[in-house]
Amino acid sequence: MLEKIAPLFVPNARNSRSTLAIMATIQVVVLLALWFASKSTLIPTPVEIARALGRLFQEHNLAYELWTSTWLCVKSMLFAVVVSLVIAYATVIPFFRPIGFLVSKGRFLTLVGLSFVFTQLTSTGSGLKTSLLVFGITVFFVTSMVSIIRSVPKHEFYHARTLRMSEWQVVWEVIILGRLDQVFEVIRQNFAISWTMLTLVEGISRSEGGIGPLLLNQQKYLHLDAVFAIQFLILCVGILLDWAIGQMKVFFFPYSTLTTAQ
Hints:
MetI-like fold
């Protein structure tokens, strides 16, 4: 027994799946026991959270609000991916590199301070929320993509040129097609960022509802059980969407798992 437990405390040790499953189960049980035993007035019990979750579905149409927020996030992500890839791929041309540099530095700006600008540029609440999310995703997406493009080994360019490819063909084969699996990984990482920004954006513009305004309303009246219930739902849906994007990457680019396995 000790031989199986000891590797759990050794750096970089490899453990069987059954051992890891048992370890995770024990940790979850201990965590739940401590949670139930806690008498904090600020942290509701799992039972209270479950009741609040059922009440939110019945009285506040939580399923519809969740769908509204999810669609907003997915829609904004699609727009941001297109814009970001155009900007990132354009940086292979020296004239457009300063644009990519400036866009990447936009990640240090706050959405709250830019809300007035985007309000003037859009005519609807939905347009405002979408534009804010697209901006918030793009600045991080471009940063990651430019880093990927710069990290392409030189020998891949030389190999493509020995095949008598033009520079445009080199860009298409080496940078665009050759790095599509990494694009999916960047999408996966930035979707998590956009998911965390979602409630902030929906709080700036509460038109059309969404899970953000619902969370802020429950927090305003100190309904802590409902707040924790919504947060738990956001966490679960976020993990599910992250898993779905990862599965899409494996489906479209099965070779991407070879490096990870090695």
